Amino acid sequence: MKAFLIAAVAVASVTLAGAAQASEALAKEKGCTACHDVDKKKMGPALKDIAAKYKGKADAEAMLVTKVSTGKGHPKVKANEAETATLVKWILAM
Length: 94
Prior knowledge:
This protein is an all-alpha fold.
């Protein structure tokens, strides 16, 4: 049982790491990293600072997807709705 639990945790860790790398690659591909860095402020705030600002807010994901999709309060992103949702979820999980 203990070995199964350790294996399950290892698989989950690899899966999450893969998803994080894919989301980081998507952020680069869609131009997010031109203005944002994960850890430090560039032209825009650090992605970790954005996550901290919206932590615990139930409507954060929907609000941020709308904000970056429509270009109101943030330059409009060059990503479709699914990609935008993936990026926002990645950011909020930091």
